[in-house]
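Dear Dr. H.,

I hope your travels went smoothly. While you were away I took the liberty of generating a structure for the chain from your last submission, since the lab meeting agenda had it listed for discussion. I wanted you to have the full record in hand beforehand rather than looking at slides cold. The sequence, exactly as received, is reproduced here:
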Amino acid sequence: MSLVGIVIGSKTDEDFIQPALDIFKEFKIEYDISILSAHRKPDRVRQYALEADSKGYEVIIAAAGSAAHLPGVIASWTTLPVIGVPLPTSDLKGVDSLYSIVQMPGGVPVACTGIGTAGVKNAALLAVQVLGIKFDDIKRSFAEYKRRLAEA
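The corresponding predicted structure, in token form, is as follows:
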């Protein structure tokens, strides 16, 4: 069963999300990836968000560039935690995406990481931490990861 749902707005965003996949592989956490556009297929995004909990997801990572409405739209339809990742896909190098994700209206929370590769890695690690609240083996693995990080 996949614990993490990963959503990207376009097939061209696949390369950006790879660092998160590497982290989930390291922690042996199953995930699913979906390509959904908040602007081109809003009904599919709504359906995805409404069904996410019943699919067993515990957290959703939504990565998007430009207007980056994807994380907020998903968050508006689910009670699961949503982590938004701004991607540097526009002329503004992701600053527009960052503002779009971080400035959610009150009542529709979306955690927001930094732009690009570091943000993708941190989104995955934040998801690992969230999962560690419920799953002791993941919590122990994350503690070991932090110990190794401190020794490097």
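Two observations you may find useful: The domain at 4-151 is CATH 3.40.50.1970 (Rossmann fold). The chain has a mean pLDDT of 96.

With kind regards,
E. W.
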